[in-house]
Design a protein that fits this description.
Elements lengths: L2 H26 L8 H27 L2 H6 L2 H24 L6 H9 L5 H12 L8 H46 L1 H8 L4 H7 L1 H17 L10 H15 L2 H4 L2 H14 L1 H7 L7 H11 L2 H13 L10 H28 L7 H9 L8 H9 L3 H31 L1
Helix pairs in contact: 1-6, 1-16, 1-20, 2-7, 2-13, 2-15, 2-16, 4-5, 4-7, 4-17, 5-7, 5-17, 6-7, 7-13, 7-19, 9-10, 13-14, 17-18, 17-20, 18-20, 19-20
Length: about 425
C-alpha cells in the first residue's frame, strides 16, 4: 500500500475533527454566543447522560459475542499500560518542571488518561471508509471498529473516574490544606512573635511527645486507666473505609459505563440478543432507536470540545516547560512504548492477528488527553485555566501528531 494513500486515509479523519472543533470554537465566541457557557453545559449533560450511553450500548450489543470477548480480552490491560506508563512519565515531568502542588494531579492525569472514546469513535469509521484503508470491506470494518472504540470508551471511563478523579482530588485537597495552614491564626502568631510553651508543644513533635509521656506517667501515678490501643487491623479497616467513602462511585459508574454493561449483557445472553438484535428480532425497534440517538454523540461532543478549548486562548500562568513535558509524553514517549507493548503482545500470542484491532490498540497510546479531565478540574476548582491551556496545545498539535502516528500505525499493521 502506497505511503501517500496511508497518509490520506489517516489525515482525513483528523481534518474532520478539526473542522467540527473549529465550528464549536466559533459558536462559543462572545459576539456569536450560540454555544456559550450555559449552552455547552446543557449540551454536555445531554451528551453525557443520553448520547454516549446510547452509542456505547448499541455498538457493543450488536457486535459483542463470546467469541469476540475472547479476542478482546487484552484491551483492558492495554489501557492499564497507558495509564501506568503515563503516570510514571507524568511524575518525571513534575520532577523536572516543579509546577505548583495543586497542578500535580492535573499533570499526571493529562499524561495518563487519553481520549480513548470520542476520538476513536470519529477516527476509526472515517479510516474504514477511506478508499486506501487496509481493513477490507468498509461496512464490516465500521461495525467492528465501532465495537472496539465503544469498549475502549467504557473501559477508559472506569479508569478515568476511579484513578484520575482521585489523583486530582488528593492534589487539590493537599493544596487547600497548605493554604489553611499558612492563613491559620497560630501560624500568624508564630510569625508575629515567639510562641508560648503550649503552642510549642502543639507544633514541635519532640515537645509534644514529651508532654504526652509526662501526661501518661501522671495518669499512671493517679491510678487512671489508659484508653485501649487501636489494633493494626482496625487502623487498616478505618483507612480503607475512608478511601472507599471518598471515592465517587456515581462518577465511576458513569452513564457510558452503565451503557457498556447493558450492552455486554444483551450481546452475551443469547435470549436477549435474539429479542433485540437483527432485522428479524421482535423488538429490534429498540436497538434501532438506540442507534439513532447514539449518532448524535460524535458531533455534539466535538462541538463542546471546540467551545471548551476557546478558554485556553485567554492563557494562564502555567509554565511552558509543563506544556512541553505533557506534549512530549503524549505524542512521543507513549506511542513508542505502545509499539513495544502491542508488538510484544502479538509476538507472545496474546493478541490475535487482526489489523483493525491492532490499529486500535496502538492508537490508544497516541491520542491527546481526555477532555473529561477539564470536568474533573472544574469539580475541585484546581487548575481549570491551566487545564484549558494544556488541552488547547494538545488538541492543536493533534492534527499533526495523530496524522503522523496513524500513518505509521497503518503501515505497521499492513505488513
Amino acid at each position: 500500500m502506497a505511503l501517500l494513500d496511508l497518509f490520506a486515509a489517516s489525515s482525513v479523519p483528523v481534518v474532520k475533527v478539526l473542522l467540527v472543533t473549529a465550528l464549536g470554537s466559533y459558536l462559543a465566541v462572545d459576539r456569536v454566543n450560540i454555544l456559550g457557557d450555559d449552552a455547552r453545559k446543557h449540551l454536555n449533560n445531554i451528551t453525557f447522560f443520553v448520547f454516549n450511553p446510547a452509542l456505547v450500548y448499541s455498538n457493543l450489543a450488536s457486535t459483542l459475542t463470546f467469541e469476540s470477548m475472547v479476542e478482546l480480552w487484552f484491551m483492558p490491560f492495554n489501557i492499564i499500560f497507558t495509564f501506568i506508563f503515563g503516570s510514571a512519565l507524568g511524575w518525571v515531568v513534575i520532577q523536572f518542571t516543579r509546577p505548583p502542588s495543586h497542578l500535580h494531579g492535573l499533570v499526571i492525569g493529562c499524561c495518563a488518561a487519553g481520549n480513548l472514546g470520542n476520538l476513536l469513535l470519529i477516527i476509526i469509521p472515517a479510516v474504514c471508509k477511506e478508499s486506501g484503508s487496509p481493513f477490507g470491506d468498509s461496512d464490516v470494518c465500521v461495525k467492528y471498529g465501532m465495537a472496539y472504540a465503544s469498549l475502549s470508551m467504557a473501559i477508559g471511563a472506569i479508569y478515568l473516574w476511579s484513578y484520575v478523579y482521585n489523583i486530582v482530588r488528593v492534589s487539590s485537597s493537599r493544596s487547600s490544606r497548605e493554604v489553611e495552614i499558612i492563613d491559620s491564626p497560630t501560624h500568624k502568631s508564630s510569625r508575629e512573635g515567639s510562641p508560648s510553651s503550649s503552642e510549642k508543644s502543639l507544633t514541635d513533635p519532640l515537645l509534644s511527645s514529651s508532654v504526652l509521656i509526662e501526661t501518661e506517667d501522671h495518669e499512671k501515678g493517679l491510678g487512671l486507666e489508659s484508653k485501649p490501643k487501636v489494633s493494626v487491623a482496625d487502623t487498616i479497616k478505618q483507612r480503607l473505609g475512608s478511601v472507599f467513602s471518598k471515592m465517587n462511585l456515581k462518577k465511576i459508574l458513569a452513564p457510558s459505563t452503565t451503557g457498556a454493561f447493558v450492552g455486554f449483557v444483551v450481546g452475551l445472553v443469547p435470549q436477549l440478543r435474539g429479542l433485540l438484535i437483527g432485522d428479524e428480532a421482535p423488538f429490534h425497534v429498540l436497538q434501532d432507536t438506540a442507534l439513532l440517538i447514539g449518532d448524535g454523540a460524535i458531533p455534539a461532543v466535538t462541538l463542546v470540545m471546540g467551545g471548551n478549548l476557546l478558554r485556553g486562548l485567554r492563557g494562564s500562568g502555567i509554565q511552558k516547560s509543563v506544556i512541553f513535558g505533557v506534549l512530549a509524553v503524549r505524542y512521543l514517549a507513549l506511542p513508542l512504548l505502545g509499539i513495544a507493548v502491542v508488538k510484544g503482545a502479538i509476538r507472545l500470542g496474546l493478541v490475535h492477528d487482526n489489523p483493525l484491532y491492532e490499529f486500535v490498540l496502538l492508537l490508544q497510546f497516541a491520542v491527546p488527553p481526555a477532555m473529561n479531565i477539564g470536568t474533573i478540574t472544574q469539580l475541585f476548582g484546581a487548575g481549570e485555566m491551566e487545564c484549558s491551556v494544556i488541552m488547547l496545545w494538545c488538541y492543536s498539535l493533534a492534527s499533526v501528531a495523530l496524522t503522523i502516528w496513524s500513518t505509521f500505525f497503518l503501515w505497521l499493521v499492513s505488513y
